[in-house]
Write a structure and sequence with these properties.
By secondary structure, the chain is of the alpha/beta class. The chain has helices spanning 14-27, 58-62, 68-78, 83-93, 106-110, 114-123, 142-159, 175-181, 190-198, 203-218, 233-248, 258-263; strands at residues 2-7, 32-36, 50-51, 97-101, 127-135, 163-168, 225-227. It has a 7-stranded parallel beta sheet, sandwiched between helices. Helix 1 packs across helix 11, helix 4 (83-93) runs parallel beside helix 6 and helix 7 packs across helix 9 (190-198). The longest helix has 18 residues, at 142-159. The chain is globular and about 55 Å long.
Length: 264
Amino acid sequence: MKFIVMVGPAGSGKSTLTMQLASAMESLGATVVKVNFDPAEDKPPYDPDVDVRDYVTAEEFMEKGLGPNGALVSAIDSLINHVDKVREEVEQFRPDYVIVDTPGQLEPFAYRVGGPLVLDALIQDDKAVTVFLMDSVFFESPADIVSILTLASSVNVRLRRPQVNVISKADLLSPEVVNNVLPMLHEEGYLEAAVRDSKVLSGTELNLSLSLARALYEAGYIGEILPVSAYDDVSLKELYGKVQEVLEGGDDYRIYDVDEDQGD
């Protein structure tokens, strides 16, 4: 089995992309299991093949007096007692791929001990890639781009797996961003210059943003960023190709261009 772990801030579209990516992969012949790994998710937009809410829910802890965030943290922590059974459920499908739809609230999952721990217990020694979703709204401002990429890099460190950075809801990107910003992002120094030119920040905030932008380039972190729309079949196939490239070392990787897709 190969695992695709969907992570990102609340509202970035993880569950929707889980549903649509699974459908696109299945149309190309892959067998896919969708795992709802969010004990606070009441009604995901898809029917999970495996659902951690069958074992533990955040509501159980809210009934004990915890607030929403505390209940989610406690529910995630308690998953360690059930993750072996979740893994057994997944294995029964004998899938090619497992898409893990992580909690909507990123912070209690990625930045506490329990989240990475139960994720490791689920994946074990199988190959896995993290797909980090960045909402397209963050790409309208250079300072916001620095902010979301810094968050992506932090999650990469926390989860310790190969990571594909994706701009979700890419159909909402402005032509200016698509044509002029995204092609330049990989050019070292571009973000620093863009932050200065925007003249939105000053003082400590400006210096911090410039330092973070510089660090992202120095670390070699700003590589390929893939724009994806959950309702655009071509971009879903491109994401699938990128996932294959990471997991298989390029053996199965291919980009489906528009003309080829239309001819299928």
